């Protein structure tokens, strides 16, 4: 509501105010100091002479400078067109069992896929005596510290089904009639 009110006042009589501003005489700028002008400096014969004069000391220093430029060696590219990784990473096959089609086939050592992470968290939740942090670290080629952090901070969701309520448990109330 406030935006509409301010817009009305802002746009009130806009055309007349604009015409009034345009028709005003422009103020004349203040005169500039004559030493600030570059035109007078460039016209001075002493400065022109100084610019055109050659200094022998600078010329001898310039002759001593020697620059040698070479192109970088040309790199021969293979015609294969594939970019090979510079560092070969050790990869391991995933341990997914019947979920094999859902995820990637190979993962770098020290990392796990999303499906593997959910599987190991669920295994640890269901059987913590069998699936200890040490066994998980050995099984999936992970560091023990990372596995402990994973088991501490990530917990899989638990799905709980509640029994459906019977009709006897639900009491329907009729609204009171006004008389």
From TrEMBL:
Gene Ontology BP, a term: mitochondrial respiratory chain complex I assembly
Chain positions covered by the region annotation Disordered: 19-41
Pfam families: UPF0240 (PF06784)
Superkingdom per UniProt: Eukaryota
One of the record's GO cellular component terms: mitochondrion
Assembly and oligomerization: Binds calmodulin. Interacts with NDUFAF3.
Family: Belongs to the NDUFAF4 family.
Protein name: NADH dehydrogenase [ubiquinone] 1 alpha subcomplex assembly factor 4
Record organism: Irena cyanogastra
């Amino acid at each position: 509501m406030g935006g509409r009110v301010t817009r009305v006042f802002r746009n009130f009589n806009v055309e007349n105010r604009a015409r009034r501003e345009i028709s005003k005489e422009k103020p004349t700028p203040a005169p500039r100091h004559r030493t600030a002008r570059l035109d007078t400096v460039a016209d001075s014969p002493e400065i022109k002479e100084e610019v055109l004069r050659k200094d022998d000391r600078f010329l001898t220093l310039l002759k001593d400078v020697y620059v040698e430029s070479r192109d970088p060696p040309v790199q021969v590219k293979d015609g294969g067109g594939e970019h090979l990784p510079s560092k070969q990473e050790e990869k391991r096959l995933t341990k997914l069992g019947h979920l094999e089609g859902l995820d990637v086939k190979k993962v770098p050592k020290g990392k796990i896929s999303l499906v593997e992470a959910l599987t190991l968290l669920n295994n640890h939740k269901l059987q913590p005596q069998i699936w200890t942090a040490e066994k998980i670290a050995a099984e999936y080629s992970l560091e023990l510290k990372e596995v402990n952090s994973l088991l501490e901070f990530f917990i899989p969701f638990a799905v709980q089904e509640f029994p459906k309520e019977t009709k006897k448990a639900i009491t329907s109330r009729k609204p009171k009639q006004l008389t």
